[in-house]
Amino acid sequence: MTSHLVTGIGELVTHDERWGGPLQDAALVAEDGRVVWVGRAADAPPADRATDLGGAAVVPGFVDSHTHLVFAGDRSAEFEARMAGTPYTGGGIATTVAATRAASDDELRARLRALADEARAQGTTTLEIKSGYGLDVEHERRLLRLAREVTDETTFLGAHVVPPGIDRGDYLALVTGPMLAACAPHARWADVFCEPGSPVAFDGDEARAVLGAARDAGLGLRVHGNQLGPGPGVRLAVELGAASVDHCTFLGDTDVAALAEGDTVATLLPGVEFSTRSPYPDARRLLDAGVEVALASDCNPGTCFSTSMPLMIALAVREMGMTSAEAVRAATLGGARALRRDDLGHLRVGARAHLAVLDAPSHRHLAYRPGVPIARGMVL
Ligand SMILES: N=CN[C@@H](CCC(=O)O)C(=O)O
Ligand SMILES: [Zn+2]
């Protein structure tokens, strides 16, 4: 077992309350992939090898708890139309499904790996990846098998939309029956796009059926909820004990109260509001109510084609009323909680030694220097 001392850390964000905030002039030792010591550089113990970061700030590696990285095709024309005023409805998902079904494993794998590398280069050290562009038994299973090559945090999203040409009831029976059975061995989670106002997504009763079947199959639950308008998604997620409800753009008081009382993380995806020109969710309202908030990219070809967690942090600070410290926490510890992982998202002793190293003196620069590639992931 080799120990690795990382020193020369100008500012270290650990999320360890005992330090009362970021540590200055810090060091960290990792052994066997885990943090074994954290403290002031002057007190650092000897180790087998050392890396001097020359005063860089370090935060926990970003935990991007919501992505759709296995897909083919291009929807830049749809984006362009949206910027010219055409609203997002979810209808474009069928375009990606057709292109994805037509792509070979190697084509999908090459794109997936390139996107995962792109995320890592910007500080992301954990990715959740959903299926949802296969929408039949063979292709949903294939997408999850490919996603599993990159992460253990895989999510079955057969209930993304009802594909064209199939009856809703028949599709629901497929998703909750044979498709779930084929996909469950390759997934840790199941998700559903619950949006009663959308002709292609699922209403509250349908979403309840999808989530109930997934829970019976041993999967953890996640929900796309309240993205395009108010609806039952958030309350359903809390009622069923989902780990996370994602988007949370249109919330009523009862939704916020349910989240505050429940055990479900509210995952905000501000890249979606940016790329669909929609109103941003009210993060301040959630935080002030005591809700656990996560930030994620939702990288996908339709609503946000960005893997950049620093961009999400900058948007959260600029547009959603979060402080830099709250946004960094949401992109790290919040994401880990949304995945129910206590070994990620912090740098206390025992955590995975996953770092985001910033070419900057402070975590504040993540929002202060938007669009500048200051973060990189480092897994020890
Ligand atoms: N809203 C549902 N699913 C994705 C978008 C998928 C797409 O448009 O391709 C989302 O999280 O925004
Ligand atoms: Zn999504």
From TrEMBL:
Subcellular location: Cytoplasm
Domain Amidohydrolase-related residue range list: 58-361
Required co-factors: Zn(2+); Fe(3+)
Binding site for Fe(3+): 66, 68, 224, 298
Positions annotated to bind Zn(2+): 66, 68, 224, 298
Pathways per UniProt: Amino-acid degradation; L-histidine degradation into L-glutamate; N-formimidoyl-L-glutamate from L-histidine: step 3/3
Origin species: Cellulomonas edaphi
Pfam family, one: Amidohydro_1
Cofactor: binding details: Binds 1 zinc or iron ion per subunit.
Main location: cytoplasm
Binding site for N-formimidoyl-L-glutamate: 133, 300, 302
Gene it is expressed from: hutI
Keyword tags: Cytoplasm, Histidine metabolism, Hydrolase, Iron, Metal-binding, Zinc
Binding positions (4-imidazolone-5-propanoate): 75, 133, 160, 227, 303
Function: Catalyzes the hydrolytic cleavage of the carbon-nitrogen bond in imidazolone-5-propanoate to yield N-formimidoyl-L-glutamate. It is the third step in the universal histidine degradation pathway.
GO molecular function term, any single one: imidazolonepropionase activity
Protein name: Imidazolonepropionase
InterPro entries, sorted: Amidohydro-rel, HutI, Metal-dep_hydrolase_composite, Metal_Hydrolase
Broad class of enzyme this protein falls into: hydrolase
UniProt catalytic activity: 4-imidazolone-5-propanoate + H2O = N-formimidoyl-L-glutamate
